[in-house]
């Protein structure tokens, strides 16, 4: 759909324009910004008798890349613009140019550290199935840690894991310390020490983890039905009204509510099944079930 056919969701007018300098798409009537950081994806300069595709477009700038996605790279294919193979001497020259181009991107030790850290962060994204927004936030936290010189003398893996866990906490994405530590291949104690460090030095403000948000994850791991999930949410909301959730582990509360809901609906799941799906012990489920049963 072209911009002329796009309607403003606020005023409903067909007055959407693009500002090339500010890279924003906005409504000229009410001023509502519809999109930002817009890149020109139109074709470049072409000649009438040329068969070469001159279209140019690029990804949006992102903190999850060492160079924020602004750098360019030399074509890895040993062919010219017409598709013909290059000579042996030209291939050798291009190979040397690519090598120095890759070296020139890393200026100092901080850049080298950041490049390695962001590479590890992208691996964690795939292992933990995290959205781009969480990775973007984790990259921002790690960059701030690098500016504060918190990386010196400490493990890159531990600080990357701590930044990722902090980003998950801020975005209320249910990921436990043990999950992050296991995915990175470090000890939980090392991760908690790094997390306390960046939490104190960067003065982060973390929201309280909502136990209701943990239900979907545990139910998926335990292969429980949608009806069981809804009943578990009702149990937790009822307990929250009676102030029974304060000071208790959110994952333990969610697992206990799912166990009670599955028992009511006769979905045969043992305490061990639910505990393994939540990454907690059976004792925790038994203790939390006692308090939840008083609510019910």
Automatic annotation (TrEMBL):
Ranges where the record places region Disordered: 41-62
Gene3D superfamilies tied to this protein: 1.10.472.170, Cyclin-like
Superkingdom of the organism of origin: Archaea
GO CC list: transcription preinitiation complex
InterPro entries named among the record's database cross-references: Cyclin-like_dom, Cyclin-like_sf, TFIIB, TFIIB_CS, TFIIB_cyclin, Znf_TFIIB
TFIIB-type domain location: 4-35
PROSITE patterns from the UniProt entry: TFIIB, ZF_TFIIB
Keyword Transcription set for record: yes
GO molecular function, one term: TBP-class protein binding
Gene Ontology biological process terms, A to Z: transcription preinitiation complex assembly
Keywords: Metal-binding, Repeat, Transcription, Transcription regulation, Zinc, Zinc-finger
Residue ranges with Polar residues bias: 46-55
UniProt record similarity statement: Belongs to the TFIIB family.
Function: Stabilizes TBP binding to an archaeal box-A promoter. Also responsible for recruiting RNA polymerase II to the pre-initiation complex (DNA-TBP-TFIIB).
Protein's recorded name: Transcription initiation factor IIB
């Amino acid at each position: 759909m072209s911009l002329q056919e796009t309607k403003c969701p606020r005023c409903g007018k067909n007055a959407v324009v693009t500002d090339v300098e500010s890279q924003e798409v906005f409504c000229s009537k009410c001023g509502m910004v519809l999109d930002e950081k817009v890149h020109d994806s139109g074709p470049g300069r072409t000649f009438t008798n040329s068969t070469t595709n001159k279209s140019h477009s690029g990804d949006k700038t992102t903190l999850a890349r060492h160079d924020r996605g602004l750098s360019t790279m030399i074509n890895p294919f040993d062919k010219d613009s017409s598709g013909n193979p290059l000579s042996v001497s030209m291939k050798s020259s291009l190979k040397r140019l690519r090598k120095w181009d890759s070296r020139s991107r890393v200026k100092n030790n901080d850049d080298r550290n950041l490049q390695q850290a962001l590479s590890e962060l992208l691996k964690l994204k795939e292992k933990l199935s995290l959205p781009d927004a969480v990775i973007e936030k984790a990259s921002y936290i790690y960059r701030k840690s690098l500016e504060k010189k918190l990386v010196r003398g400490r493990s890159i893996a531990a600080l990357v894991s701590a930044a990722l866990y902090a980003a998950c906490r801020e975005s209320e994405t249910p990921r436990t310390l043990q999950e992050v530590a296991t995915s990175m291949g470090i000890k939980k104690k090392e991760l908690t020490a790094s997390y306390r460090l960046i939490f104190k030095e960067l003065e982060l403000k973390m929201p309280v983890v909502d136990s209701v948000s943990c239900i979907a994850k545990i139910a998926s791991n335990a292969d429980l039905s949608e009806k069981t999930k809804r009943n578990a949410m009702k149990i937790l909301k009822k307990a929250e009204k009676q102030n029974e959730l304060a000071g208790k582990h959110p994952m333990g509360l969610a697992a206990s509510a799912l166990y009670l809901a599955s028992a009511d609906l006769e979905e045969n799941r043992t305490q061990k099944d639910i505990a393994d799906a939540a990454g907690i012990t059976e004792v925790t489920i038994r203790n939390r079930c006692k308090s939840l049963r008083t609510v019910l």
